[in-house]
Amino acid sequence: MYETLAVVGATGAVGRIVLEQLQQRNLPFKKLKLLASERSVGKEVRFNGEAIKVELLAPGAFKNVDLAIGSTPDEIAAEFVPYAVKEGAVVVDESGYWRMDPKVPLIIPEVNPDAANKHEGILASPNCSTTQMVVALAPLHQVARVTRVVVSTYQATSGAGLPGSEELNDSVRSALVGQTHPPKTFQHPIGFNLIPQIGSSKYEGYTSEEMKMVYETQKILGDDGIQVCPTCVRVPVTNGHSESILVETEKHISVEEAKELFEAFEGITVVDDLPNNQYPMPRDCEGKDDVFVGRIRKDISSPNGIAFWCVSDNLRKGAATNAVQIAELLMKRS
Ligand code: 2RA
């Protein structure tokens, strides 16, 4: 039984949506504890009509906590998760720190729910760009086995948290009056620009964000043979990541079959009517929990390829919603 739930990083951009989702989805816990860094301690957050005071994230904070959802940077997760587990909590962690640990299942509830049965106190939620892509790949993989993916991302500034969104606004305002707002969160001004770098240089000219898409996809789909070639780009969009995906499968699937598979899969909404200018766009997907797929077409350059466009609210399915769904899954199975 998971009676006491803690939300770690409760006042951050994703933590706030975690709380919203917990209320909306009506998870069956009895007590809620909110934990955050010193800066937020003492703040009051309303939850189901009740004011809850934010407490300090520190050793001892997880006494009597059964389940914790963590939305913190990697370095905070590296530190707090071990003591939370030691104090008896099961942790659903949204940071990148634990994802590739072989003892930690990396879960998308619609894709690999059974992997959640085998954990040692920590379960991880994937990176936002990986999550939406893998939700879209899963129905094709189940039927035709995905062998190769070429993906380019168009990632919103909210992926870098509240400072990212503020920097977009400042950068656009400055550019409109012919000035340059000095970038702090991003490597270059983001207003009226694209930045083909998310994260740091990691491997053979690929960035850390790109390599997450490689390793996490293989881990979630349980197939190290899947080849992924990613290019991750930051775009001047406040919220909602978009991806252009080309997928090659072992078995041929037609465009019609691909459409049917997408439509039948839980968590995917198909918006695909090019003659009527209908396809997913970040503006339309903001605030929604599904992964949206459109522009579904055959790859005219190879025999077993399907190309499509995929959009999702990176703060929701890419982060908060997926973590809350993992918590929900654990509660249902306890
Ligand atoms: C980003 N994927 O968009 C990252 C956040 N985890 O910056």
Provide structural commentary.
The protein has 334 residues and is α/β, with parallel strands linked by helices. The protein folds into 2 domains: 4-126 and 319-333, Rossmann fold (3-Layer(aba) Sandwich); 130-313, Dihydrodipicolinate Reductase, domain 2 (2-Layer Sandwich). The protein has helices at residues 13-25, 74-86, 128-144, 161-176, 208-221, 255-264, 282-285, 316-333; strands at 4-8, 31-36, 44-47, 50-56, 67-70, 90-93, 122-124, 146-155, 201-203, 206-207, 227-234, 241-249, 268-270, 291-298, 305-312. The strands form 3 sheets. It has a 7-stranded mixed beta sheet with strand order 3-4-2-1-5-6-7, with helices on both faces. The chain has a 6-stranded mixed beta sheet with strand order 11-8-12-15-14-13. The protein has a two-stranded antiparallel sheet with strand order 9-10. β5 (67-70), α2 and β6 (90-93) form a beta-alpha-beta unit. α3 (128-144) packs parallel to α5. The protein is globular. The protein starts with a strand and ends with a helix. Bound molecules: 3-amino-D-alanine.
